[in-house]
Amino acid sequence: MSHNVELFVGPELAIGRLTARWPRAQVYRLMPKARLLAVPLDPDCFDEDPALPGAGVAESWGDPSKASAEEIASVAPLSAGGALAYLPTNYFGGAGYQGAILWVDGACTFGPATYWSREHEPLPLSERPINRALRGLGVVRGEALDEFDAFGLANYRSYEAIIERALAA
To answer: What is the C-alpha to C-alpha distance for residues 84 and 105, in angstroms, rounded to an integer?
Structure first.
């Protein structure tokens, strides 16, 4: 089974700034009543839309560790007075990666971080990049397995799944 998504996540303030800069963005709630919004990135969006923050070197964004300092800095202002995260996954049959970059109040505070499931020592769920970034956005695990599940990301394994089933915001 695969999980391949790429999205920006944040509260309304940061997502509003993102959509002002990138009018093509589609905004969703992955869970009913979720306070955080998600902007999924379609696989071709960097090639098609140069207005997308960080679009200068499209290939670097799938794996956050390849994002340049300039690209990371270009997104930071969107988080002023709030927070914003970039969260990609690319797994197939348990092999693959997840990553995260977190900006808070105009500065990168976590990442870029990438965890490769078959190339690194196993990490506890709580230390995986997406869970750390989601905690930085205020997601609380509660009764869920981890923040990834609490946020609802486990329910959407692809860009298409988000577009088809998530709640438009």
So the answer is: 9
